[in-house]
Amino acid sequence: MKTIDASALNGRPRPRARILQWGEGNFLRAFVDWKIDRMNEAGGLDWGVIVVRPIAGGNPHWLNEQDGLYTVLSRGVADDGSKVSEARVVGSVLKEIGAYQHWDEVLELARSPEITVVISNTTDAGIAYVPTVKYDDAPQASFPAKMTRLLHERWTAFAGKADAGWQMIACELIDHNGDELRRIVLQHAEEWGLEPAFIAWVKEANAFYNTLVDRIVPGYPKADAEAIEQELGYSDRFMTTGELFHFFVIEQKPGQPDLRLPLAAHDQQTVVVPDATPYKARKVAILNGAHTALCALSLISGVETVGEAVTTPVGAKFLDRLLAEEVIPFLTLPKDELKAFADAVLRRFANPYIRHLWYDISLNGLVKYQTRDLDRLTAYMDRHGKPAPLLTLSLASWLAFYLGRFKGSDAYPPRDAAEIVDKVKAIGALDDSSAKGREAMVSAYLGETAFWGKSIDTPALRAAVLADFTALTQQPMTFERLGALIDAR
Q1: Of 376, 477, 465, 388, nearest to 427 (Cα)?
Q2: Which residues neighbour 154 within 8 Å (Cβ) at sequence distance 6 or greater?
Q3: What was the pLDDT predicted at 193?
Q4: How many CB atoms lie within 10 A of CB 152?
Q5: Which of 116, 127, 186, 472 is 20 to 30 A away from residue 292, measured at CA?
Q6: pLDDT at 125 over 90
Q7: Cα 318 to the chain's mean position, in Å?
């Protein structure tokens, strides 16, 4: 079978190189590069991407083996409930360069007047300060240090002209990703003793944009790749899958220039806003929070996957009520937008093409509850004067999960830092089978600041969690029993 080539584009032209991208992974290729490719076709534009691989190793194969071409399969459940699998050949990526293999070529890109936008996703830990890096390293070990070196190369090449500045769109999954990249770049510039005029140019002529990215990208479809390639008529080492849903928020703060890359003008699922905070709160509370709220309940009930849970009446009822009653009322975006996003999340959870294991989601479950659900739990209590019924049930289920108080627990030990697991075990030891001992256990659980960042132990919440923990652990849990607990509240 032939390897994918330009004939798969069906006559679509290749764009010219205008974007420098740090990161060759599945996510950027199935999200930003895919969006750029669709934008080029919709708007008759020619924004092409040069990918720089920022690490020394990685995939033994290179995108250049396929002239930058690859296929993205968008798969999921449509609004009408039907299953959808759509293939698109992406032609926006032109070349891949290894930073460690061809650093001189990367520096040359900094001197190109055509390259005006930089995109990055160097993993969650990519935007990090490394104190040992030096200006003369070739290349520097960290991504922000590499960016500092490239910016200095550009400043020198264009004699500090303001219009030579770059727009940097950071897609790493950290808060204020663009701001953090800018901060570390300026820190390196100061520590390396670079020219004050250069530092001023970085601040005044370059823009660093914060973003929020949202698309599940499982990656290469190993299980059915051969059948897919037979259907497509070509082989593709870089084929990747993504869910149907995709949403990109770019924060253009007051004073920042308009974005050169006109994604939002051609893609309804890309928005440019002055503050991304409400969109982050929406994603964390509705998407991540729903995952966390149902996770331990599913595991202690013997339900292995997200899809299995949400396609049952019990799981669907739990999430419908959770989002409608205990989450959406405490978010700030318009209610119709929140409801539409919640509906999309439930379709995403039911995606038959993604087998998402609850046990994977359970990693560091207590801190996930703190960051994703605790604000809604406390807001509900403040507004209604009583604990939120479903979030409280979830809170109790995490205690049962970490203590292994459920059938089949040997196969699912808690996945967390050793000190957290040890703290939960010590708390569980307070339960001496007496009513007083069990209440002491729940009080210690709610009062542990290492779990919640503060004590959340109040008489009302303690009584509710104690009752729910007893109901969840007094006999083996099933989803049928869980349904009865939900109906009773």
Answers
A1: 465
A2: 110, 111, 164, 166
A3: 98
A4: 23
A5: 127
A6: no
A7: 24
Phi-psi label, residue 338: left if phi above 0, alpha if psi -120 to 50, beta otherwise? alpha
Q: Using only C-alpha atoms, what is the Rg of the chain?
A: 25
* Run of H or E including 329: none
Least Cα distance to 320 among 328, 209, 150 occurs for 328
Complete domains list, the chain, with CATH:
6-273 (3.40.50.720), 279-487 (1.10.1040.10)
Three-state secondary structure along 136-156?
CCCCCCCHHHHHHHHHHHHHH
**pLDDT tens-digit profile of 320-349?**
999 999 999 999 999 999 999 999 999 999
DSSP 429-477: TT--SSHHHHHHHHHHHHH-HHHHSS----HHHHHHHHHHHHHHHSS--
Is the preceding omega at residue 139 within 30 degrees of 0, hence cis? Answer: yes
254 within 8 A of 70, measured Cβ to Cβ:
no
**How many Å apart are CA 118 and CA 109, to the nearest integer?**
11
Spatial contact of 263 and 270, defined as CB atoms under 8 Å apart: yes
Beta-carbon contacts of 102 under 8 Å, excluding residues fewer than 6 positions away, are none
Mean pLDDT score, 417-435: 96
CB atoms within 10 A of CB 315: 26
Q: Across the strands, what pairs with 117?
A: 19, 167
Nearest to 278 by CA among 338, 345, 189, 223: 338
Spatial separation of the C-alpha atoms in residues 447 and 424, rounded to whole Å: 12
Cβ 439 vs Cβ 461: under 8 Å? no
Residues in Cβ contact with 117 at an 8 Å cutoff, skipping those fewer than 6 apart: 18, 19, 20, 47, 166, 167, 168, 169, 260, 261
3-state secondary structure at position 408: coil
Cα separation, 108 vs 399, whole angstroms: 55
Rounded Cα distance, 288 and 283, in Å = 7
Mean pLDDT of the chain: 96
Residue 280 tokens, joined: 């982050």
The predicted-structure confidence for 440-456, as pLDDT tens digits, reads as follows 999 999 999 999 999 99
Please give the C-alpha separations between residue 282 and each of 77, 275, 287, 333, 458, in angstroms, as whole numbers: 21, 13, 8, 8, 27
Residue type, 451: F
pLDDT, residue 81, reads: 87
Which strand ranges, in their side-by-side order, compose the sheet holding 70-77?
83-90, 70-77, 240-243
Q: What's the whole-model pTM score?
A: 0.90
